[in-house]
Structure formats: C-alpha cells, structure tokens
Write a structure and sequence with these properties.
Radius of gyration: 18 Å
Number of helices: 10
Bound molecules: adenosine-5'-diphosphate, nickel (II) ion
Order of helices and strands: HHHHHHHHHH
Number of strands: 0
Oligomer: single chain
C-alpha cells in the first residue's frame, strides 16, 4: 500500500533528521510534505512519487558532506530499495532529489517532470510567508548578521559563493531572494499560494520599516 510506504519513509526521515540544523530539520521536511499535498489537490500528478520525494528531499545535504551532490539521491535510493519500492518509482524520486539539489540555475537541469515541479514549489513555499520570515531570521542569527542596516543596499544577482560569504543584514535577503520566489513557482496552484505569502511578507516589511523609523 502506498500509504504504508509513505508512513514508513516519514518515520525513517524523522529519525534521520533528529540532529539536523533548524533550517532543514524534520519540521521543514514535514511542512514541505504538507505543501506538496496541498498542491496535489489541484495539480494532476503521481501522489506516491511526489510524497516520497518531498519527504526525502533533504535527507542528506551536500553542504554537510564535503559538497557531495550525490549523497542525497543515493541515500534516498538505498532507503527505498531497502523497503522494496518499485524501481521505476525509485528512479523518479532519485531524479527529483538530484535535480532539486542542484538548486535554482546551477548547472543544467537534466530532468524535469510535473512531480519534480510540485516538490520544488513545495520547498520554495517554505522559504516565504510567515515561516520564510522566521527561517530567514533564524539563519541570520546563526550567521551573526544584523537585522537591518540602511547603508547596505541589497544586491539581487550575486554568485552563490559571493552570497554565502556576504555579511549583509537579514532584511537584504528578502530583496535578494525571498521576494523573487513568487515568480519562480512552476505550478498555478503554487503561484496562488505564493501570491498570498508574498503579500504577507510585503506587509511585514512595511511594518518593519515603519517601526524602524519610529513612525508607528
Ligand atoms: P534551501 O536549501 O531550501 O535552498 P538554504 O539552505 O539556502 O535553502 O536556506 C535555508 C533557509 O535559510 C531558507 O529559509 C533561506 O531563505 C534562509 N537563508 C538562506 N540564506 C540566507 C541569508 N543570506 N539570510 C537569511 N536567510 C537565509
Ligand atoms: Ni528543503
């Protein structure tokens, strides 16, 4: 039964991510899974593949394994083989995880499918809205970044390396990445949800700057 496979996989990932950092912990995975299920209500795609890929998408992050981009897809494949999932399903899930981990625009996308579009949208939705704001400030705090500095202007198109080493305030991340995500959604369902979350971030920023100026 598909639901047994999905439940087993969730239990495995929850256990595996027990000590993960807060940006990519089990709760991030669970939210991405829920976002994916929400998208599946209006998008026509293979549920088993979407749910398994969403649950396994951050099972092993290259960042913490000397940049080994294959660690995620390989871990997912080994696990799915161990519980006897059909090989065509494993292949598809592995492709989704591999191509998602090459992040937006890095290298050529070798693979694309409706299922992959949904999982990628579900992951991106978790970077915006109320949760996205919380994640950004958590990351900024971890990196010892200031909240905001009026003298440091956001620069949206930096290389990944430049971006990683930047000491820009967390508010800049909204202009460099978070406010751009709504236009990167693949599916109409995700575009609708992103529009709402985007508007919430804009209201948040208006309030933030008004408070910064002592206007409210
Ligand atoms: P992903 O693996 O989902 O592509 P990242 O590892 O780049 O995401 O980031 C994880 C979380 O940290 C996301 O919510 C992202 O918005 C946030 N984040 C990444 N870089 C920054 C930054 N420079 N400032 C603030 N938040 C950041
Ligand atoms: Ni993720």
């Amino acid at each position: 039964m598909d639901s047994d496979l999905i439940g087993k996989t969730a239990a495995y990932v929850k256990e595996a991510l027990q000590n993960a950092e807060s940006g990519h912990d089990w709760w991030h995975t669970e939210r991405v899974w829920k976002n994916a299920r929400l998208l599946l209500r209006s998008e026509d795609a293979d549920h088993l593949i979407v749910e398994l890929a969403a649950i396994l998408h951050d099972i092993a992050d290259a960042k913490f394994h000397n940049g080994d981009e294959e660690i995620g897809p390989r871990t997912a494949r080994n696990y799915l083989q161990s519980i006897g999932v059909e090989s065509s399903v494993i292949f598809h899930v592995e492709q989704i995880i591999r191509n998602m981990s090459y992040k937006s625009g890095l290298g050529e996308i070798e693979y694309s499918s409706k299922e992959m579009e949904i999982v990628q949208d579900a992951d991106r939705l978790d970077a915006i809205g109320a949760i996205g704001i919380a994640r950004a400030f958590t990351y900024g705090g971890y990196k010892n970044r200031t909240l905001y500095d009026p003298a440091i202007v956001p620069k949206p198109s930096q290389s990944k390396e430049e971006y990683k080493n930047s000491t820009a305030p967390t508010i800049n991340h909204f202009y460099e990445k978070l406010l751009l995500l709504k236009n990167k959604m693949n599916t109409p369902a995700a575009r609708r949800i992103a529009a709402e979350r985007h508007e919430f971030m804009e209201r948040y920023l208006d309030q933030f700057f008004a408070e910064w100026q002592g206007e409210k």
